[in-house]
Amino acid sequence: MEESSGHKKQIIVTLAVLIVIVAIVAAAMVAGNKDDTQNSGSSNTSAMTATVDPSATYTDGTYEATGDYVSPGGNEEITISVTLKDNVVTDTSAINGATDTEAKQHQDDFIGGYKSLVVGKNINEVKLSRVSGSSLTSQGFNDAIQQIRNKAEV
User: What is the pLDDT of residues 68-117, one digit of tens each?
Assistant: First the structure.
């Protein structure tokens, strides 16, 4: 009888340990998915919802601003031009202003992939998080977009 009782205790302890391990793995997976959603949305490209007044209106026209961000190589800049019509981005272009070699490559990657995430969108909804693997350049882009909103706001 004691052997059976000891065996039951061992099974209960083993099950408890397995439950704790499963709970830890599940929590880590949920946290990882939350980070992926916030930072990238997909493996390489995403747009985030902007936190601006959705009812803000802007004067039609073409606006340019230079956004700043900090990369591992130091302070960097990217210049963004946006054409607005009825609050919608109808065209955009970007000029690579990076000084660090790695930052230049990330900006080139960003410039090659961001346009489809912006053109046709209401400028109130434009906010990028990661484009073509470049998340820091997105910070400079978002800075420039906010400057453009400020310049164009009615």
Answer: 999 999 999 999 999 999 999 999 999 999 999 999 999 999 999 999 99
Residues 110, 148, single domain; the answer is: yes
Label the pairing between strands 74-85 and 128-130.
Answer: unpaired
Closest CA to 94 of 117, 74, 110: 110
Q: Could you tell me the CA-to-CA distances from 40 to 30, 91, 129 in Å, in that order?
A: 15, 24, 6
Q: Which domain holds residue 34?
A: 1-39
Residues 78 and 140 in one domain: yes
Q: Which of 58, 60, 93, 88 is nearest to 78 (CA)?
A: 93
Residues 63 and 120 in one domain: yes
Rounded Cα distance, 48 and 40, in Å: 9
Same domain flag for 66 and 142? yes
Taking the alpha carbons of 60, 61, 62, 68 in that order, is the dihedral positive or negative? Answer: negative
User: pLDDT of 24-47, one tens digit each?
Assistant: 877 776 655 443 333 333 345 555
Q: Are 49 and 37 in contact (CB under 8 A)?
A: no
